[in-house]
Design brief:
Layout (H helix, E strand, L loop, with lengths): L2 H14 L3 E3 L11 E3 L1 H19 L5 E3 L8 H7 L1 H4 L1 E6 L6 E3 H27 L5 H7 L1 H21 L4 H10 L16 E4 L3 E4 L7 E4 L5 H5 L2 H7 L6 E10 L14 E11 L4 H17 L8 E5 L9 E9 L2 E12 L1 H10 L5 E3 L4 E3 L2 E8 H12 E5 L5 E5 L10 E5 L6 H12 L5 E3 L5 H11 L3 E5 L1 H6 L1 E6 L5 E5 L3 H9 L1 H8 L2
Parallel strand pairs: 3-9, 19-20, 19-21
Antiparallel strand pairs: 1-2, 4-5, 4-6, 7-8, 9-10, 10-16, 11-12, 12-13, 13-16, 14-15, 17-18, 21-22, 22-23
Helix pairs in contact: 2-13, 2-18, 3-12, 5-7, 5-8, 7-8
């Protein structure tokens, strides 16, 4: 099945099973805004809990805050967002649609990558076990030709984005003969800059109101509070501040479901270090964050680092952790060495000293910062994409299953009475009452056991328990495992011991301590 078709099925599955709904659905939706349903919010909360605890529980020198969405407008002037938070946009005159020029070019590079992967896949099928992929990549004339085109495009694109050189970006689009996906034409306008911040008015009347912005990132809330946290928490450099919160960007190219939205959630940690040590800390945080992702068990081959060709004005090193989505490798987390730009700017614009006094060296300095920033929604999507599977069974049937990491699954255990009579529902309720304080349980009595199993598979429930007539006699139940569909008879009193450790966030955190 084509990856595009797989992605469409995942989007449909998210709505059908209560994970993600289009916002304002009964009013035909609102572009690039989504609501999380009853299962989606549980999965999302579990992702956030996994991240939060990995930061503040596993690191004694990292604490959390929750800053306001509305902030003093001068903050965004100091940070550079008012003047420099822009995307290069281009319109197609025929479709009247607007696109990000950089995204069009990146998609073109991805097409070259896909062509190379197809050539490799065909060769692998042709040569079988004797296939040497590295040798093939280095000697195949077709692969080398495609790679040369891709590398040449990459070089031109990196150079154009340094400015950015808007004329050069348009010329790349023309030279690569990139067409509008809707009209199919190459009738493009010039490229121009567009600021992404949402603005609004604060005040009781038009005369007294002032223009403020919905924050486009959560990092600045950390920077303006860093000294408050340092002093009240008696923190010593190096130390970090973590935050989870909403951010808002007026994205023109908002697409690929929840991958790029106008309202989204970030999990960010700013790590304050002594100047001159930031490039020592940078690789350490790269390794720490990659380990966090790989602890989910999705396979190392599905992750990669992508170093930035163009560094932001505040950075001296930057990389992305990319995950293999159905539409290619895409960024899920950014790791940046932000130097001391933000703190220095806020000190300049506020007129207040926010330097750190180091008691060991008896000197004051502005700390440098290592940032880790991960999108909750992109993380959610990457998990859904990897977990979704249509499995062919031995009897010829197909089951749709979400192989979610057990600790992240919305429901950990479904308890099902075999029939809705003879005391079986009451026994099932008794089991839920004893376990619901430990993890999320769900009672299900509608339809046949087989249909109920399929329903739980579709939402990723790792364990199901069936209560039958023998349960009333010997206090045992049938425990079914989602991934293997194997069943075993266990004592009701043992259920918590069998399940709890496997479905707790602690089970993931322990992998990070190895």
């Amino acid at each position: 099945m084509a990856q595009e078709d797989v992605f469409k099925k995942i989007v449909s599955h998210c709505k059908e099973y209560g994970f993600v709904f289009p916002s304002s659905d009964i009013y035909d939706g609102l572009g690039a805004v989504y609501d999380y349903g009853q299962n989606g919010v549980e999965l999302k909360n579990n992702i956030k809990e996994y991240w939060w605890k990995s930061m503040v529980l596993l690191h004694e020198n990292i604490v959390g805050i929750d800053s306001a969405i509305f902030m003093h407008p001068t903050i965004w002037k100091a940070s550079g967002h008012v003047d420099a938070f822009n995307d290069p946009l281009i319109d197609n005159r025929d479709s009247k649609k607007r696109y990000r020029a950089d995204v069009l070019i990146e998609d073109q590079m991805a097409k070259y990558d896909e062509k190379i992967e197809k050539e490799v896949a065909k060769a692998r099928k042709r040569f079988g076990e004797s296939f040497d992929e590295a040798q093939y990549m280095a000697t195949s004339p077709r692969v080398l030709e495609i790679k040369q085109k891709r590398d040449a495009l990459h070089t031109r694109y990196a150079d154009a984005m340094q400015g950015p050189d808007l004329d050069a970006l348009k010329q790349i689009i023309i030279d690569e003969e990139i067409v509008d996906p809707i009209s199919g034409t190459k009738n493009w306008t010039d490229v121009r800059q567009f600021n992404l911040m949402f603005s609004t008015e604060m005040g009781a009347s038009a005369d007294s109101s002032s223009k403020i912005y919905l924050r486009p990132e959560t990092a600045q809330g950390i920077f303006v509070n860093y000294l408050n946290v340092q002093k009240t928490g008696r923190m010593k450099v190096p130390f970090g501040i973590a935050q989870i919160g909403k951010a808002f960007r007026n994205e023109i190219v908002a697409r690929q479901f929840i991958f790029r939205m106008r309202e989204f959630e970030q999990m960010e940690m700013q790590f304050f270090v002594k100047p001159g040590t930031e490039l020592d800390w940078f690789p350490k945080w790269k390794a720490t964050r990659m380990a966090w992702h790989q602890a989910l068990g999705f396979g190392e081959e599905n992750y990669r680092f992508h170093d930035h060709d163009k560094l932001a004005h505040y950075a001296n090193a930057a990389t992305d952790i990319e995950f293999r989505m159905p539409f290619g490798f895409k960024e899920v987390e950014g790791i940046h060495s932000r130097t001391n730009f933000d703190l220095s700017q806020h000190e300049k614009f506020s007129g207040r000293s926010i330097k750190y006094f180091d008691p060991q060296t008896n000197e004051s300095y502005t700390p440098y910062v290592i940032e880790t920033s991960i999108g909750v929604d992109r993380m959610f999507l990457s998990i859904m994409c990897h977990s979704y599977e249509e499995e062919k069974l031995e009897n010829g049937e197909t089951r749709t299953v979400l192989r979610l990491p057990a600790a992240l699954a919305p429901v950990k255990l479904a308890v099902m009475p075999l029939v809705k009579k003879d005391g079986l529902p009451e026994k099932a309720r008794e089991i839920i009452d004893s376990l619901k304080f430990h993890f999320n349980c769900q009672y299900d009595e509608k339809d046949t056991i087989g249909k109920r199993y399929r329903r739980q598979d579709a939402i990723g429930t790792p364990y199901c328990v069936t209560v039958d007539y023998d349960s009333l006699k010997d206090n045992t139940v049938t425990l079914r495992f989602r991934d293997t569909m194997e069943q075993e008879r266990v004592s009701i009193s043992e259920l918590n011991n069998i399940i709890e450790d496997k479905v707790s966030i602690a089970s993931l955190l322990k992998k990070l301590q190895k």
